[in-house]
Design brief:
Strand content: 25-35%
Strand order of the largest sheet: 5-2-6-7-8
CATH superfamily: ABC-type transport auxiliary lipoprotein component
Number of strands: 8
Number of helices: 3
CATH architecture: 3-Layer(aba) Sandwich
Distance between the termini: 98 Å
Oligomer: single chain
Radius of gyration: 25 Å
Helix content: 25-40%
Number of domains: 1
Shape: elongated
Length: 204
């Protein structure tokens, strides 16, 4: 058998390298980054301007299974799916607080709305503490939110009784559609909160 010449071997090297390069070409990152969209619920409530209210939102607490960068979908009562390539653009608790704050500003036309934590010199005269119990898409076509929350005064003392909210909405399949459904739920929760906060009397 005749062996290839040195010249033939040298000519083959670029072909081999080119083939290897094709296999190593970078692939597009499939990850999508999600946010919550204020106003997605399209809630209609009578507008009462409360410019005397300086509202604080937070702290917002989440169950441990939701306190992660990835979107989580509930399959059934005991099974969850964690979507590695669908991620929140910031910690979910912070996104929830920001979205609730923007919705409250739209519903109440408050003097200001800020999220926890805040400086002592910038302390709100009324705030809402929120404990999320469930907040995820539920296969095959819905999303659910369960939360307990309470309104407190500038000194952290409760105003009225603790409240509970439980909402469900339709959700199409896919991270973007599911994030939109979760945004609608946050809008409904914010409307619940606004209905209580709008009647609060403040002293400063």
């Amino acid at each position: 058998m005749r062996l290839p010449s040195t010249r033939q071997m040298l000519l083959a090297v670029p072909v081999i390298l080119l083939s290897a390069g094709c296999g190593l070409s970078p692939r597009k990152d499939p990850t999508v980054f999600l946010v919550l969209a204020p106003g997605a619920a399209e809630v209609v409530i009578p507008m009462i301007a409360r410019t005397d209210l300086h509202i604080g939102v937070g702290p917002v607490t989440l169950p441990r299974y939701l306190d992660r960068p990835q979107l989580v979908t509930r399959v059934d009562a005991t099974e969850l799916t964690v979507h590695e390539f669908a991620r929140w653009s910031a910690p979910l608790g912070a996104l929830v607080a920001d979205a609730i704050g923007e919705n409250l500003m739209n519903y109440l036309a408050a003097g200001s709305v800020r999220t926890h934590p805040w400086a002592a010199a910038d302390r709100p005269n009324v705030s809402v503490r929120i404990a999320i119990r469930q907040f995820e898409p539920v296969a095959p076509d819905s999303a659910v939110l369960r939360a307990r929350w309470e309104v407190v005064d500038a000194d952290g003392q409760p105003i009225g009784e603790p409240q509970a909210s439980h909402h469900r909405t339709a959700a199409a399949v896919g991270p973007k559609a599911e994030a939109l459904a979760l945004s609608r739920l946050i809008g409904l929760l914010a409307a619940d909160i606004a209905g209580v906060v709008r009647s609060v009397n403040v002293t400063r």
